[in-house]
Amino acid sequence: MEAVLSVKNLSTYFYMEEGVVAAVDDVSFDLAPQEVLGIVGETGSGKSVTVKSVMRLIKSPGKIVNGQIIYKGTNILEIPENEMYKIRGKEISMVFQDPMTSLNPLYTIGDQLMETIIQHQSVSKSEAYKRAVEMLQLVQIPEPEKRMRSYPFEFSGGMRQRAVIAIALSCNPSVLIADEPTTALDVTIQAQILDLMRSLQERLKTAMIFITHDLGVIASMAHKIMVMYGGKQVEFGSAEDIFYRPIHPYTNMLLRSVPRIDRKIDRLQSIPGQPPRMIDIPKVCTFLPRCPKRTEKCQTAIPPMEEIEPGHFVRCFNPVRGDE
Amino acid sequence: MSEILLQVLNLKKYFPVKQGFFIKRTVAEVKAVDDVSFEVMKGKTFALVGESGCGKTTAARTILRLTDPTFGQIFFNGKDLSKLKYKELLPYRKRMQIVFQDPMGSLNPRMTVAQIVTEPMLFHGIVKNRKEAYDRAKTLMQMVGLRPFHLDRYPHQFSGGQRQRIAIARAISIEPDFIVLDEPTSSLDVSVQAQIVNMFLDFQDRFKFSYLFISHNLSLVRFISHTVGIMYLGRIVEMGDTDEIFEEPLHPYSKALLSATPIPDPIVERARKRIILTGGVPSPIKRPDGCFFNPRCPYKMDICEKEYPELRKISENRRVACHLVK
User: 3-state DSSP call for residue A123?
Assistant: First the structure.
């Protein structure tokens, strides 16, 4: 199937006083229609910068230095900013981590929903109002008409995130990007929001990019998974590939470093060392200093993304094989 | 059977809610911790889990007398600490330590690591002089996986995981018996979390520390704790052996909490039947009548709106506060 969104060799660098931070370095992926792509990685791995680049929300000192972002056949890195307005929020929309900062505290939920609808669709105010109420119903906010007049502070964290999802979906986008949408929420509320997102995704068939650092959340949401480390994608594959046949040493160790509620585990695998400081890093694999499988060859170049089995890619000279 | 190190009996901590411009009147109370009792065994880990606002951190702070309890007793090795004066508390403070959630907030940015790590030793007089303290600090640095030369640096020069190691070095510097771990890894990345958690287990093996582990991360609680208390709105709703509770939770809230925790395994996740609770946690100022969980409980009965169920012992290792569980 033709991809709705195709990112090719995307590199986004931040030019800081201390040096250059390659926050995203040579990242490529395709997002098929109706598919949920999970991006997983630790703090500073570049997952947020990747999607912010897709939305063209990178501000100075950051700069997209290379690559293409093809949305329905057009490279959106080349279109003028006023064209981009028509894509942001309508074609590709985004849900951020903290709903308190992504909602404007001075406007009612209804105002903010209607603003998005009126901005992107040529509808009257009363039509927009009707659609907004429908959207609140869709995200299961009780008494939607009353809630239209509420301000964000009157909502609980979970309700706010529902409202943000309603705004994001109000123009029926082709791609929904969710950047850690449940990280700020308690676990029972997280379960509600994930359940809502799963059912809406199945119903509306929106393609979705879902970012998280939580391996449990990604397992419950994603069809395909991209693992990022130190600004680079290290592994890409179906959820089964990543969870049951991880071949990058980082993915492999990461999966063994998390405890789970359904099993008694005696010892967690820990990954020695610290995540990389991203300033002026050498042109080698960013996981090199912590990697148990590093060899001479790793010191010489950045390994390319290679397809090990159909649809399963890895960026490593010494991938983990079988039951290693 | 191991011995009890810490016994908490009917602990309550209420915070007044004040209103008024000139004359502040107490209009209500937040019952952050409301009649909580539990035990921590020597050399074992007891975990308090629950969502934000359930009172788990307040319980821990009250036990250490960082805030004074409204009611209740805290027996440490048989001695009630709840009403001791500052001076009388000191010998016990020496045996209790805490590692906080945010290592940036708990390390003084103007002190070097050496000052941070040696201060408790010097304060409690367990070393003769600065020289001896510094030498011990060097050993401590190695124990927590840092290098002796790090002692001359400042906290901002370290990553989050390293800072937490410094906080741990400070906590174990006076060789306490009991350490409160208040969400010690929730600000860390998973790969670093594993390093820190493994370190806690190693130290427990070596030094027989007793831990009170405070967390909202159930997977971590299952891994690290021997016994667990699940809290909801200031009270423990289920308590007992960790493995038993995780294998078969009995309280509807425990069931929902476990069911809401995602498992890093896509096939297991897709096949799971989830209990999705409706609504959020009610306000701790105006808690529901009867069982606090009744508005969200899928198994609610008439009695649940009238009476708060007592925390009953239902087997050797289990206590549950639910009208449904007999």
Answer: coil
